[in-house]
């Protein structure tokens, strides 16, 4: 393209801009070149967390760092920050489901009390229990989230304390098989190590 033609195009563009003084002329180069902005539908792998209200994408390192990066402060929400330290909800739900599949629908009553009958349905189901385990900062919060009776909560606390103290006899007394002790202990320790008993 000759320099005269380029100059003519620039002059024509300038004429349009001056002819429409109240109009705003913008050119989004990101859209033109196919780049995604911070508010795109998908987040970049380096900034995988998407704020639910404003759609901004932020790096995982900015989650729970004490400084809100989402417009509503969601990245500093106490439930989110607790869940970030715990096993993923999907992993917890899968673990609970495998125990129920192996031992029957009332097996988790041994851990969570009488409301844990029928595959945890009286507590809202496996998914709800997994979410409560993930989001509840402490065992007290967990009990409140699922409306556990005080006696069931104290029993659960004794199970966690036994695991924390290395007393596998407590787990065996609940009927947990030797082949499952390691997995159950590992799972419960993950919760204990993230402040569940505090």
UniProtKB/TrEMBL annotation:
InterPro entries: IDLSRF-like_peptide (IPR053103), LDL_receptor-like_sf (IPR036055), LDLR_class-A_CS (IPR023415), LDrepeatLR_classA_rpt (IPR002172). The keyword Signal applies. Keywords: Disulfide bond, Signal. It comes from the Eukaryota. Residues 1-19 form the signal peptide. The keyword Disulfide bond applies. Gene3D superfamilies: Low-density Lipoprotein Receptor (4.10.400.10). This is IDLSRF-like peptide. The lineage of its organism: Eukaryota, Metazoa, Ecdysozoa, Arthropoda, Hexapoda.
């Amino acid at each position: 393209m000759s320099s005269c033609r380029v100059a003519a195009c620039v002059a024509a563009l300038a004429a349009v801009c001056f002819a429409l003084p109240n109009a705003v002329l913008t050119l989004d180069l990101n859209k033109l070149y196919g780049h995604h902005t911070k508010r795109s539908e998908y987040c970049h792998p380096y900034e995988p967390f998407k704020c639910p209200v404003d759609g901004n994408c932020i790096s995982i390192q900015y989650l729970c760092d004490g400084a809100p990066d989402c417009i509503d402060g969601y990245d500093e929400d106490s439930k989110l920050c607790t869940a970030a330290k715990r096993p993923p909800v999907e992993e917890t739900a899968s673990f609970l489901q495998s125990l129920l599949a192996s031992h029957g629908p009332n097996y988790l009553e041994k851990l969570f009390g009488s409301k844990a009958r029928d595959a945890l349905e009286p507590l809202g189901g496996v998914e709800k229990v997994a979410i409560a385990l993930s989001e509840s900062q402490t065992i007290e919060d967990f009990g409140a989230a699922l409306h556990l009776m005080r006696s069931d909560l104290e029993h659960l606390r004794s199970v966690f304390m036994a695991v924390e103290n290395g007393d596998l006899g407590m787990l065996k007394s609940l009927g947990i098989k030797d082949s499952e002790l390691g997995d159950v202990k590992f799972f419960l320790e993950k919760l204990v190590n993230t402040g569940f008993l505090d």
